[in-house]
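WARN retry 2 of 3 for item q-0093 after timeout on previous attempt; input resubmitted unchanged.
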Amino acid sequence: MTTHRAGHPLPYDTYREAVARETLRFCEVVRGADPATAVPSCPDWTLADLARHVGSLQRWFGTLLTRLVQEPPRSRELELGLPENARDYPDWVAAGVPGVAAVLRDTDPEAPMWVWGEDRHARFWARRMLFETLVHRVDAERAVGLTSDIDPALAADGVDEFLVNLPYAGLFAPGVTKLRGDGETLAFRSTGADGDPGEEWRMRLDPDGFRPVGRDAEESEPVRAAVRGQAADLLLLLYGRRSYQDPAFEVSGRTAVLDNWFAHTAF
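OK item q-0093 returned
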């Protein structure tokens, strides 16, 4: 089993291409659907809200990359060109794809810049944009009753991206700042399509916070609780779109550790 790959994302071009692909998939799902359709996995949101969020966030990330900002932005005001009719939102989101693609193509992924997470380079935003878009594509599919599929390699990388950056997410997810423990280690384990062991990500919960646990600490820190499942299911679990009590998961150890984790990690 491979321990988590913190700090080792996929090739930059993989994100650049996947962002465009996932965005267009999102647009296909919401185009033609009633904009007032509720999105159960995003409480109080409709498909119109979701489309506006995806399109706005991508344009915002693109602006940050274009400017290679070095300090936290003081404002998120942008000229969005949002259509008056919510039924036109899917086309508006799709219309932003070429611009985002150009920004990602023209940006040096190694360029230092401000980010809210761990990897303080431009590539952080490409990776973040992908999983923001991918998870919301799944949200939209669920809202209209479609079955979702997620590429296993992307899903595994999404699990890694979530866990590596979560300790920094208190900026917009204040519950994260209150996640504590007594030194226990929690493991998320992926399985391959054939049931073979996949990757493993370990998180240690201490009295002063939490952090990923690397390979070097593997033997000295026993796992108190673990969740095993397909990488795609783990990704949706971490984002609060599934429950560890679902039959898709094999759970071992102390469920109180899991309850503590999920009570503080809503994203």
